[in-house]
Amino acid sequence: MKKTFLSLVIVFFYSCSNTDKTFVDSNFNSVQKNNHTVETKLKENLVQHGEIISIDFIDNDNFVVGTKNPSNVIVYNISGDQELVISNVGYGPFEFQQPSIIKSYNGNIYIWCPEQLKLIIYSLDGMPIKEYSSFTSAIRNFVPFGNKIAFYKASGSAENFIEIYDLDSEEKIYQGGEASNEHIVLSLSACMGAISYWDDKILFMNADNLKLTWLSETDLSKERKLEIQDDDFKVEKVEGQATSFINEHRMKAMKYIFENSIVTGMYNINNSLLVKAEVGRFETDFDNNHFDDSKRYNKYFVINHDLELINNFIMERMSFENPCLYSSNDEFLYSLVSIGEGNDYFYQLLKYDFELK
Question: Tens digit of pLDDT per residue, the chain (357 long)?
Fold first, then answer.
């Protein structure tokens, strides 16, 4: 595989009914080691893959990724072998330009193409099933459930950033999530969005705080919140309007993303919901091309089926890790990391075995 530039991707959110509050003390003094194991090295037995930009587990033994340069959707087994390649690049039916977000649900593969604002569904053996192209907004993430799809929109203004569509009628049936100025600035980051389907509920979080909102699958009007107030999670207030701050102070906005805490994902593991956030400061000096993330950490919050916080812990963060490349198979949390090898690179699948309780 030819070496390509691996973009530095950072991730980050905000949310604002019933609200439960839980208070968490700082635990910067008890940072755990990043004790992962290398599950496998990804092989190129069918095609040379490009830069991986999305991952989702199909089951305990298989996962699917989306790549760019070239654009492919590739199914791997847990041993790292390629089992299926979907490379229908184009603008025609069931074709995509870049598979930026990949999900597996109910025996199918869901592909989001941002250039065409199109959702395509394939079977696990690579057969096209259906596509939807009536959407009008860019998104950061999505979750399929039943005959519906929940989108986490790319927020560029103070508007609702969660939308749910009925795929049978292709109509919007819910919108919610309030975007603060801080959320909008943090949303400049790629891959932003904490959204999950778990225990018959749709759950989402903003980038800039630890408020978890959940909706009943059977009644989307029923909304409940859990607010975690954590001493380690710190976000500075954005003065004035976020759009003005971004447009008039671009470098300050970029530093803001690095130097503030941010929510980076939610994962279903061992009958618990695991919320992942980044805390601490990522020191930046753009003028001298100096970056120090030694004081930036991953912090995890464990939530049970009663939607109560039961544990939290802080862990070393791998330098320049890509929060977009985390996924779970309901048993373990995994991440993909790129490893340099001369003028080339390869990907390793890492496994994290947490003590959640």
Answer: 544 433 333 333 333 346 777 777 666 778 999 989 999 999 999 999 999 999 999 999 999 999 999 999 999 999 999 999 999 999 999 999 999 999 999 999 999 999 999 999 999 999 999 999 989 999 999 999 999 999 999 876 667 899 999 999 999 999 999 999 999 999 888 777 699 999 999 999 999 999 999 999 999 998 999 999 999 999 999 999 999 999 999 999 999 999 999 999 999 999 999 999 999 988 888 888 888 888 999 999 999 999 999 999 999 998 878 999 999 998 999 999 999 888 889 999 999 988 887
Of 42, 50, 128, the residue nearest 86 (C-alpha): 128
Tell me, yes or no, if the pTM score tops 0.85.
yes
Distance CA 148, CA 200 (A): 13
The 10 Å Cβ neighbour count of residue 7 is: 12
Cα(183)–Cα(170) distance, integer angstroms? 28
> In this structure, are residues 118 and 138 in contact, taking their beta carbons and an 8 Å threshold?
no
CATH architecture of 18-352: 6 Propeller (2.120)
